[in-house]
Design goal:
It is built from eleven helices and twelve strands. By secondary structure, it is an alpha+beta fold. The strands form three sheets. Strands 1, 2, 6, 7 and 9 form a five-stranded antiparallel beta sheet that branches. The two termini are 50 Å apart. This is BTB domain-containing protein. Pfam families: BTB.
Protein backbone atom coordinates (compact mmCIF):
# COMPACT_ATOMS: atom_id res chain seq x y z
CA UNK A 1 0.00 0.00 0.00
CA UNK A 2 1.30 3.49 -0.83
CA UNK A 3 0.35 6.95 0.37
CA UNK A 4 0.51 10.40 -1.25
CA UNK A 5 3.97 11.86 -1.77
CA UNK A 6 5.74 13.48 1.17
CA UNK A 7 7.45 16.66 -0.06
CA UNK A 8 9.80 19.26 1.34
CA UNK A 9 11.55 22.30 -0.16
CA UNK A 10 14.54 23.75 1.67
CA UNK A 11 15.50 27.37 1.87
CA UNK A 12 18.56 28.52 -0.08
CA UNK A 13 21.81 28.03 1.83
CA UNK A 14 25.34 29.25 1.20
CA UNK A 15 28.23 26.81 1.47
CA UNK A 16 31.68 28.40 1.71
CA UNK A 17 33.73 25.25 2.17
CA UNK A 18 33.54 24.97 5.94
CA UNK A 19 31.75 21.89 7.22
CA UNK A 20 28.31 23.01 8.36
CA UNK A 21 24.65 22.17 8.73
CA UNK A 22 22.69 23.87 5.98
CA UNK A 23 19.12 22.97 6.88
CA UNK A 24 17.17 21.05 9.53
CA UNK A 25 13.55 20.05 8.95
CA UNK A 26 10.89 18.04 10.75
CA UNK A 27 7.84 17.53 8.55
CA UNK A 28 5.32 14.74 7.92
CA UNK A 29 7.09 12.38 10.30
CA UNK A 30 10.49 12.84 8.59
CA UNK A 31 13.41 14.56 10.29
CA UNK A 32 16.10 15.62 7.84
CA UNK A 33 19.47 17.22 8.57
CA UNK A 34 21.26 18.60 5.50
CA UNK A 35 24.98 19.21 5.87
CA UNK A 36 28.02 19.83 3.68
CA UNK A 37 31.79 19.43 3.83
CA UNK A 38 34.83 19.35 1.53
CA UNK A 39 36.90 16.22 1.05
CA UNK A 40 39.72 15.68 -1.45
CA UNK A 41 38.83 18.94 -3.13
CA UNK A 42 35.19 18.02 -3.77
CA UNK A 43 32.06 19.37 -2.09
CA UNK A 44 29.94 16.69 -0.48
CA UNK A 45 26.31 17.01 0.57
CA UNK A 46 24.75 14.74 3.20
CA UNK A 47 21.10 14.23 4.08
CA UNK A 48 20.47 12.38 7.32
CA UNK A 49 16.91 11.09 7.36
CA UNK A 50 15.16 9.89 10.51
CA UNK A 51 11.67 8.53 9.77
CA UNK A 52 11.16 6.46 12.91
CA UNK A 53 7.83 8.18 13.53
CA UNK A 54 6.50 6.91 10.20
CA UNK A 55 7.86 3.44 10.93
CA UNK A 56 5.88 3.40 14.15
CA UNK A 57 2.79 4.23 12.09
CA UNK A 58 3.33 1.20 9.85
CA UNK A 59 5.55 2.58 7.08
CA UNK A 60 8.10 -0.01 5.98
CA UNK A 61 10.16 1.92 3.42
CA UNK A 62 10.54 5.30 1.70
CA UNK A 63 11.48 5.73 -1.95
CA UNK A 64 11.80 8.80 -4.12
CA UNK A 65 14.13 11.60 -5.16
CA UNK A 66 16.25 14.46 -3.88
CA UNK A 67 16.77 17.31 -6.35
CA UNK A 68 19.63 19.78 -5.86
CA UNK A 69 19.87 23.22 -7.49
CA UNK A 70 22.70 25.78 -7.48
CA UNK A 71 21.49 29.35 -7.97
CA UNK A 72 24.52 30.50 -9.99
CA UNK A 73 24.57 27.39 -12.21
CA UNK A 74 28.03 26.27 -11.13
CA UNK A 75 26.59 22.81 -11.74
CA UNK A 76 23.34 21.70 -13.40
CA UNK A 77 20.37 20.53 -11.30
CA UNK A 78 20.95 17.00 -10.08
CA UNK A 79 18.53 14.32 -9.03
CA UNK A 80 19.39 11.54 -6.60
CA UNK A 81 17.27 8.41 -6.29
CA UNK A 82 16.80 7.32 -2.68
CA UNK A 83 15.57 4.09 -1.17
CA UNK A 84 15.31 4.40 2.61
CA UNK A 85 14.99 1.01 4.29
CA UNK A 86 16.58 1.89 7.64
CA UNK A 87 14.76 4.39 9.85
CA UNK A 88 17.98 6.38 10.21
CA UNK A 89 19.67 6.62 6.82
CA UNK A 90 22.23 9.01 5.36
CA UNK A 91 22.34 9.89 1.65
CA UNK A 92 25.56 11.43 0.31
CA UNK A 93 26.45 13.13 -2.95
CA UNK A 94 29.73 14.61 -4.25
CA UNK A 95 28.67 17.51 -6.42
CA UNK A 96 31.72 19.49 -7.57
CA UNK A 97 35.49 19.70 -7.58
CA UNK A 98 35.56 23.51 -7.61
CA UNK A 99 36.34 25.85 -4.76
CA UNK A 100 33.55 28.29 -5.59
CA UNK A 101 31.06 29.46 -3.02
CA UNK A 102 27.85 27.57 -3.62
CA UNK A 103 24.34 28.90 -3.16
CA UNK A 104 22.21 25.80 -3.10
CA UNK A 105 18.83 24.39 -2.19
CA UNK A 106 17.18 21.01 -2.38
CA UNK A 107 13.79 19.40 -2.34
CA UNK A 108 12.72 15.85 -1.73
CA UNK A 109 9.72 13.86 -2.83
CA UNK A 110 9.26 10.55 -1.04
CA UNK A 111 6.64 7.81 -1.23
CA UNK A 112 5.92 5.82 1.96
CA UNK A 113 5.30 2.10 1.56
CA UNK A 114 3.57 -0.15 4.05
CA UNK A 115 4.67 -3.73 4.65
CA UNK A 116 2.17 -6.24 3.23
CA UNK A 117 0.04 -8.10 5.78
CA UNK A 118 1.57 -11.34 7.01
CA UNK A 119 -1.36 -13.29 5.62
CA UNK A 120 0.70 -16.33 4.62
CA UNK A 121 2.06 -16.63 8.16
CA UNK A 122 -1.44 -16.39 9.60
CA UNK A 123 -2.71 -19.04 7.19
CA UNK A 124 -0.06 -21.41 8.57
CA UNK A 125 -0.87 -20.39 12.14
CA UNK A 126 -4.55 -21.21 11.70
CA UNK A 127 -4.21 -24.32 9.53
CA UNK A 128 -6.05 -27.54 10.49
CA UNK A 129 -4.18 -29.60 13.07
CA UNK A 130 -4.80 -32.52 15.41
CA UNK A 131 -4.22 -30.00 18.21
CA UNK A 132 -7.21 -27.90 17.12
CA UNK A 133 -10.80 -28.82 17.87
CA UNK A 134 -12.96 -25.93 16.68
CA UNK A 135 -13.26 -23.37 13.90
CA UNK A 136 -13.66 -19.62 14.13
CA UNK A 137 -14.85 -17.74 11.04
CA UNK A 138 -13.53 -14.22 10.45
CA UNK A 139 -14.22 -12.33 7.23
CA UNK A 140 -15.34 -15.62 5.71
CA UNK A 141 -12.03 -17.34 6.48
CA UNK A 142 -11.87 -20.44 8.65
CA UNK A 143 -9.49 -20.31 11.59
CA UNK A 144 -8.71 -23.61 13.27
CA UNK A 145 -8.02 -23.17 17.00
CA UNK A 146 -7.77 -25.06 20.25
CA UNK A 147 -10.61 -24.36 22.69
CA UNK A 148 -8.46 -25.29 25.68
CA UNK A 149 -5.54 -23.07 24.63
CA UNK A 150 -7.65 -19.98 23.94
CA UNK A 151 -9.75 -20.54 27.06
CA UNK A 152 -6.61 -20.77 29.21
CA UNK A 153 -5.44 -17.34 28.03
CA UNK A 154 -8.77 -15.57 27.56
CA UNK A 155 -11.86 -15.27 29.73
CA UNK A 156 -13.70 -14.15 26.59
CA UNK A 157 -13.07 -17.46 24.83
CA UNK A 158 -13.54 -19.43 28.01
CA UNK A 159 -17.07 -18.05 28.19
CA UNK A 160 -17.66 -18.34 24.42
CA UNK A 161 -16.78 -22.05 24.39
CA UNK A 162 -18.75 -22.88 27.54
CA UNK A 163 -22.10 -24.61 27.56
CA UNK A 164 -23.71 -21.39 28.80
CA UNK A 165 -23.53 -19.97 25.28
CA UNK A 166 -25.05 -21.54 22.20
CA UNK A 167 -21.78 -20.93 20.34
CA UNK A 168 -20.11 -23.47 22.60
CA UNK A 169 -21.94 -26.28 20.84
CA UNK A 170 -21.38 -25.02 17.29
CA UNK A 171 -18.77 -26.53 15.00
CA UNK A 172 -18.03 -23.09 13.52
CA UNK A 173 -18.27 -19.79 15.38
CA UNK A 174 -18.29 -16.44 13.61
CA UNK A 175 -16.30 -13.61 15.22
CA UNK A 176 -17.47 -10.21 14.03
CA UNK A 177 -15.99 -6.70 14.03
CA UNK A 178 -12.39 -7.80 13.72
CA UNK A 179 -10.31 -8.36 10.60
CA UNK A 180 -8.51 -11.59 9.76
CA UNK A 181 -5.13 -9.82 9.79
CA UNK A 182 -5.78 -8.14 13.14
CA UNK A 183 -6.86 -11.42 14.73
CA UNK A 184 -3.77 -13.06 13.27
CA UNK A 185 -1.61 -10.30 14.75
CA UNK A 186 -3.27 -10.84 18.13
CA UNK A 187 -2.84 -14.61 18.21
CA UNK A 188 0.69 -14.51 16.84
CA UNK A 189 1.75 -12.51 19.90
CA UNK A 190 1.06 -15.36 22.37
CA UNK A 191 0.95 -18.54 20.26
CA UNK A 192 4.04 -20.80 20.25
CA UNK A 193 6.94 -19.18 18.34
CA UNK A 194 5.45 -15.72 18.98
CA UNK A 195 5.89 -12.61 16.87
CA UNK A 196 6.96 -9.94 19.33
CA UNK A 197 5.23 -6.53 19.35
CA UNK A 198 6.82 -3.39 17.99
CA UNK A 199 5.93 0.29 18.22
CA UNK A 200 3.74 -0.03 15.12
CA UNK A 201 1.56 -2.79 16.56
CA UNK A 202 1.28 -2.01 20.28
CA UNK A 203 -1.92 0.05 20.12
CA UNK A 204 -3.77 -2.51 18.02
CA UNK A 205 -2.60 -5.33 20.30
CA UNK A 206 -3.72 -3.45 23.40
CA UNK A 207 -7.10 -2.70 21.83
CA UNK A 208 -7.65 -6.34 20.87
CA UNK A 209 -6.17 -7.66 24.10
CA UNK A 210 -8.74 -5.68 26.05
CA UNK A 211 -11.63 -6.70 23.80
CA UNK A 212 -10.82 -10.42 24.00
CA UNK A 213 -9.77 -10.27 27.69
CA UNK A 214 -6.22 -11.42 27.00
CA UNK A 215 -4.16 -10.22 29.97
CA UNK A 216 -1.22 -12.18 28.55
CA UNK A 217 -1.12 -9.89 25.53
CA UNK A 218 -1.38 -6.76 27.67
CA UNK A 219 1.61 -7.92 29.71
CA UNK A 220 3.64 -8.80 26.61
CA UNK A 221 3.03 -5.31 25.22
CA UNK A 222 3.84 -3.73 28.59
CA UNK A 223 7.21 -5.50 28.60
CA UNK A 224 7.95 -4.07 25.13
CA UNK A 225 6.99 -0.56 26.25
CA UNK A 226 9.08 -0.85 29.39
CA UNK A 227 12.29 -2.14 27.85
CA UNK A 228 12.36 -1.67 24.06
CA UNK A 229 9.96 1.01 22.80
CA UNK A 230 10.90 4.44 21.47
CA UNK A 231 7.41 5.88 22.02
CA UNK A 232 7.47 9.20 23.88
CA UNK A 233 6.71 9.31 27.59
CA UNK A 234 3.56 11.42 27.09
CA UNK A 235 1.90 8.81 24.90
CA UNK A 236 3.20 6.01 27.09
CA UNK A 237 1.46 7.52 30.10
CA UNK A 238 -1.82 7.58 28.19
CA UNK A 239 -1.39 3.95 27.05
CA UNK A 240 -0.48 2.82 30.56
CA UNK A 241 -3.49 4.61 32.03
CA UNK A 242 -5.93 3.49 29.33
CA UNK A 243 -4.98 -0.19 29.45
CA UNK A 244 -4.17 -0.62 33.13
CA UNK A 245 -0.41 -1.14 32.88
CA UNK A 246 0.59 -0.13 36.38
CA UNK A 247 4.31 -0.89 36.21
CA UNK A 248 4.66 1.14 33.01
CA UNK A 249 2.70 4.05 34.49
CA UNK A 250 4.93 4.15 37.56
CA UNK A 251 8.06 4.16 35.37
CA UNK A 252 6.72 6.96 33.15
CA UNK A 253 5.82 9.13 36.14
CA UNK A 254 9.37 8.72 37.45
CA UNK A 255 10.74 9.81 34.06
CA UNK A 256 9.03 13.18 34.50
CA UNK A 257 12.29 14.28 36.10
CA UNK A 258 11.87 18.03 35.81
CA UNK A 259 9.18 20.60 36.48
CA UNK A 260 9.20 21.56 32.81
CA UNK A 261 8.48 18.00 31.63
CA UNK A 262 5.71 17.48 34.15
CA UNK A 263 4.04 20.83 33.41
CA UNK A 264 4.32 20.23 29.64
CA UNK A 265 2.40 16.98 29.99
CA UNK A 266 -0.40 18.82 31.76
CA UNK A 267 -0.86 21.07 28.70
CA UNK A 268 -1.17 18.23 26.16
CA UNK A 269 -4.58 17.05 24.84
CA UNK A 270 -3.84 13.53 26.15
CA UNK A 271 -3.90 14.86 29.71
CA UNK A 272 -7.66 15.38 29.56
CA UNK A 273 -8.12 11.72 28.57
CA UNK A 274 -6.38 10.43 31.67
CA UNK A 275 -8.23 9.06 34.67
CA UNK A 276 -8.45 11.24 37.75
CA UNK A 277 -6.14 8.84 39.61
CA UNK A 278 -3.36 9.29 37.05
CA UNK A 279 -3.87 13.06 36.92
CA UNK A 280 -3.35 13.17 40.67
CA UNK A 281 -0.10 11.20 40.29
CA UNK A 282 1.14 13.68 37.66
CA UNK A 283 0.16 16.70 39.73
CA UNK A 284 1.88 15.12 42.71
CA UNK A 285 5.02 14.77 40.61
CA UNK A 286 4.79 18.46 39.72
CA UNK A 287 4.54 19.38 43.40
CA UNK A 288 7.83 17.55 44.08
CA UNK A 289 9.63 20.19 42.01
CA UNK A 290 7.85 23.22 43.47
Amino acid sequence: MTQPLLKYQSKTATFTGTASKLDISDLNGIKCTWSAYVRFGAEHLNWKFDWGELYNQGVDRLTGYITIKERNNFFPPQTIYVDLKETVHTVSKAISDSEKQLVISFKYSLTPHHAPPETDFYDILFAPSHMNDTVLVIEGKKIHVSKAFLSYHSEYFEALFSKKFKEGSLSEIEIKEVSYDDFGLLCSSFYPYPQFPNDRTVEKLLELGRRFLLRTVIRIVEHHLLHISNIGVQKMIWLADEYGMGVLLEKCIRELDSLEKAKQLKTLPEFEKLTDKTKVLILGRIMEFV
